Amino acid sequence: MDMTPEFTLLALTLVLALVQIGAAGLARTAELGVKWNAGPRDGEVPPPGRLAGRLMRAQANLFETLPVFAAAVIMAQIAGRDGALTFVGTHLYFFGRLAYLPLYAFGVPYIRSLVWLVAAAGLVMVIAALFL
User: Fold this and answer.
1) Per-residue pLDDT tens over the stretch 29-67
2) What is the dihedral of CA 117, 4, 64, 60, to 10 degrees?
3) Helix crossing, 84-105 with 50-79: angle to 10°?
């Protein structure tokens, strides 16, 4: 099977997920220190600071939809349902998720929610392609 644009966007989304894991981890380590990160992390841990908390929530937000996105892209490719809907949908999802991260990290309201809706619309488009 060829590496279609949809699979490429899925792969880039997986890279984005790794970037978000790393960013959240680095921010948390900057707050609590390398010794905490290397240790067993037993006991009470203070709540995350502003940046680490935002990065952790952005990561959790991505992980809520990433399995659905991955399944929809894979199903569309296997079923031969790829086309304009999946092409546009995967681009909207990926670039929406890419823009969402810095918007969340910098605490930008409203625009962040609008960008989330763009990514969600892309996800819906890929799912819709399975039925059309």
Assistant:
1) 999 999 888 888 888 888 999 999 999 999 999 999 999
2) -90
3) 170
